[in-house]
Write a structure and sequence with these properties.
By secondary structure, this protein is of the alpha/beta class. The chain contains 14 helices and twelve strands. The structure holds ligand P1T.
Length: 384
């Protein structure tokens, strides 16, 4: 089977997968082991210690690489552990240009952890890629793009950023958590690295915390495998198994997330008690044309501001929801609601947060795959 030729849905199920060598198990066994017998020092069947490699993790790493149309995959203990590994490619004095609006935990990792090691982060509004040219310089080593952004749903033109990164010989890394490879494949658009919080749509069932990286370049992959082994923030075998099981239904789940997302975005946009809805599927979205070009659908993430909204008012609405669960995270089969200012983005100072539109009244929805009518009825009672 020439895997590269498979279409997405087939890859989600078969990509990088082979029946287990021992008994032909169709799903890779959960190799819950730290170590592997050697017949002589250094002589073994491919695995020596589970920090450097584990067959269940390999199965997940191959699957993620396959669905991202990449060559090398690495799985980590969390999305942030994956970003942390990536940042370890850098040296003191190096600079990173990042999207201004991004997951609060990524921002916190950049500012609170890596700035003290001498890495400089420059946050720019990449809705207009020209803004990158203003800050790029000889010390820039990486461009960090999150698209759609969390939680403002801004869309960044990956191909346009890739032209800039290639011209200046800097790495382009794309956090593909919100879109997933079902909707958007950054490596095909010129990115060097794709990152995932696999905790979200890839896992899909809110039962694991896992991160992943995918690259095509062998040297870059070797450096990242070295960091993965040397720093050790690896994904365990049970979590690898669960994430792999999630990936096998990614395409069918994403289809429904997109349908329900569209229904709810349109419902909210017409609601008299709603001030503003952020969703890239609207023609009025400032980068709708870019979203149409680089994504095959608009996903299930939506943010909105209630009319006359305040912190108190937003909190009251999310407390009233019955089917949407008020919780951190996103991308599972069940619908979740969040209040970015006090939850996912509390790690960003209020002033910075508000510059990118994360006002106190903003509510973020991760639309699940329940019946859209039930979700709409739930929003209706909460808004009223
Ligand atoms: O939670 P973790 O698996 O470590 O992934 C971090 C991360 C990275 N990138 C994006 C775009 C994310 O949304 C996240 C995690 N986000 C949440 C927990 C949240 O509620 O937004």
């Amino acid at each position: 089977m020439n895997e590269k030729k498979l279409r997405f849905n087939s890859k989600a199920i078969h990509g990088g997968q082979h029946p287990d060598k021992a008994y032909g198990a169709v799903m890779p066994p959960i190799y819950q082991t730290s170590t592997y017998a050697q017949t002589s020092p250094g002589e073994h069947k491919g695995y020596e210690y589970s920090r450097s490699g584990n067959p269940t993790r390999t199965a997940l790493e191959n699957a993620v690489a396959s669905i991202e149309n990449g060559t090398y995959g690495m799985a980590f203990a969390s999305g942030l552990a994956a970003i942390d590994a990536l940042l370890k490619l850098l040296e003191p004095g190096d600079e990173v240009i990042s999207t201004g609006d991004l997951y609060g935990g990524s921002y916190r990792l950049f500012k609170k952890m890596y700035e003290k090691y001498g890495i400089v982060f420059r946050f720019v509004d990449m809705g207009n890629v020209e803004n990158i040219a203003e800050v790029i310089n000889g010390k820039t080593k990486m461009i960090w793009v999150e698209t759609p952004t969390n939680p403002m749903m801004n869309i960044i033109d990956i191909e346009a950023v890739a032209r800039i990164s290639k011209k200046h010989h800097v790495l382009l890394a794309v956090d593909n958590t919100f879109a997933t490879p079902y909707l958007q494949q950054p490596l095909e658009l010129g990115a060097d690295i794709v990152m995932h919080s696999a905790t979200k749509y890839l896992g899909g069932h809110s039962d694991v915390v896992v991160g992943a990286l995918v690259v095509n370049d062998k040297d870059l992959a070797d450096q990242l495998y070295f960091i993965q082994k040397a720093s050790g923030a690896i994904c365990g075998p049970m979590d690898a198994f669960l994430t792999l099981r999630g990936i096998k239904t990614l395409h069918v789940r994403m289809q429904r997330h997109c349908e329900n997302g569209a229904a709810i975005a349109e419902y909210l946009a017409k609601h008299p008690k709603v001030e503003k809805v952020y969703w890239p599927g609207f023609e009025s979205h400032p980068n709708h044309e870019v979203a149409k070009k680089q994504m095959s659908g608009f996903g299930g993430m939506i943010s909105f501001v209630p009319k006359g909204g305040s912190y108190k008012n937003a909190v009251k609405i999310v407390e009233q929801l019955k089917i949407f669960t008020l919780a951190e995270s996103l991308g599972g089969v069940e619908s979740l609601a969040g209040h970015p200012a006090s939850m996912s983005h509390a790690g960003i100072p209020k002033e910075e947060r508000e510059k990118s539109g994360i006002v106190d009244a903003l509510i973020r929805l991760s639309v699940g795959i329940e019946d859209a009518e039930d979700l709409i009825a739930d929003l209706e009672q909460a808004l009223n």
